[in-house]
Amino acid sequence: MANHSQFNFQDAASPIMEELIKFHDHALMVALAICSLVLYMLTLTLTGKLTSSTVDAQEIEVIWTILPAAVLIMLALPSLQILYMMDEVNEPILTLKAIGHQWYWTYEYTDLKDLTFDSYMTPTTDLPLGHYRLLEVDHRVVVPTEAPVRVIVTADDVLHSWAVPSLGVKTDAVPGRLNQTSFTASRPGVFYGQCSEICGANHSYMPIVVESVPLACFENWSSMMTP
C-alpha cells in the first residue's frame, strides 16, 4: 500500500504490475533523453556556439524524420505488448463478479455455490488498533496465490471503478455492462484499492481489499463462508 511521502509505485504483487513499472521506467528514460537533447541544442543556440545557417540540409531532414519514428516505435511496442497481456484471460482458476453500489461493493464467487457478500468500509469508530483508516472493510476479497483470477465488473447505479494498484488492475464499473479483467497475485498479502471513479458524496468511502492466501487457506475460507 502507499506510504506517507512515497514517490515511487507500490510494490508490484502481480506480473502485470511488474511489467507496468518496467514500462514506466523505460518511457521515463526515453523522455529524459529527449529533454536532454533539446536542452543541449537550446544551450548551444543561446550561447552563440551554434551560429551556422543553411537553406538545404537533407541529412538533417532525414535525421529528424527517422529519429521521432524510432522513438515512437520504442514506446509503442512494449505498450502494445502490455495492453494485450492485460486483455488476456487464460483459463482462470476463479471467477469473481464485483458490483459497485453507492457506496459499497458486492462480490459474487460465481464458481462457488451461494458465496456472495457485501463489502463496506469499516467505520473509524470500529477500527481495530493498527488497521488502516478509510481502507479497511468488513469483508475482504480472498483469492488464492499464484492462481489466475478473472474479475467481472459492473455497477448497479452510477459509474464506479474497481482498482487495486499493487495488482495492476483498474476496470470501470458501468451500469448495464459487464467489463472484465484478470490478475494473478504473485505472493501472499493484503492489497488495498479504492473506487477510482467519482460516484457521489461518499465516493471516498468505498475501499477495496484483496487478500491473497495459499490455496489450502482459500478452500478453508470458502467452506466457512458458504452456508
From TrEMBL:
Main location: mitochondrion
Cofactor(s) in the UniProt record: Cu cation
One GO cellular component term: mitochondrial inner membrane
Entry-linked InterPro entries: CcO_II, CcO_II-like_C, CcO_II_C, Copper_CuA, Cupredoxin, Cyt_c_oxidase_su2, Cyt_c_oxidase_su2_TM_dom, Cyt_c_oxidase_su2_TM_sf
Membrane-topology annotation of the record: Multi-pass membrane protein
Catalysis: reaction(s): 4 Fe(II)-[cytochrome c] + O2 + 8 H(+)(in) = 4 Fe(III)-[cytochrome c] + 2 H2O + 4 H(+)(out)
GO-annotated molecular function: copper ion binding; cytochrome-c oxidase activity; oxidoreductase activity
Tagged with keyword Plastid: no
GO BP annotation list: ATP synthesis coupled electron transport
Cofactor: binding comment: Binds a copper A center.
Domain Cytochrome oxidase subunit II transmembrane region profile per the UniProt entry, residue ranges: 1-90
Subcellular location: Mitochondrion inner membrane
Transmembrane segments: 27-50, 62-84
Keywords: Copper, Electron transport, Magnesium, Membrane, Metal-binding, Mitochondrion, Mitochondrion inner membrane, Respiratory chain, Translocase, Transmembrane, Transmembrane helix, Transport
Domain named Cytochrome oxidase subunit II copper A binding: residues: 91-224
CDD domains given in the database record: CcO_II_C (cd13912)
Family: Belongs to the cytochrome c oxidase subunit 2 family.
Function: Component of the cytochrome c oxidase, the last enzyme in the mitochondrial electron transport chain which drives oxidative phosphorylation. The respiratory chain contains 3 multisubunit complexes succinate dehydrogenase (complex II, CII), ubiquinol-cytochrome c oxidoreductase (cytochrome b-c1 complex, complex III, CIII) and cytochrome c oxidase (complex IV, CIV), that cooperate to transfer electrons derived from NADH and succinate to molecular oxygen, creating an electrochemical gradient over the inner membrane that drives transmembrane transport and the ATP synthase.
Protein name: Cytochrome c oxidase subunit 2
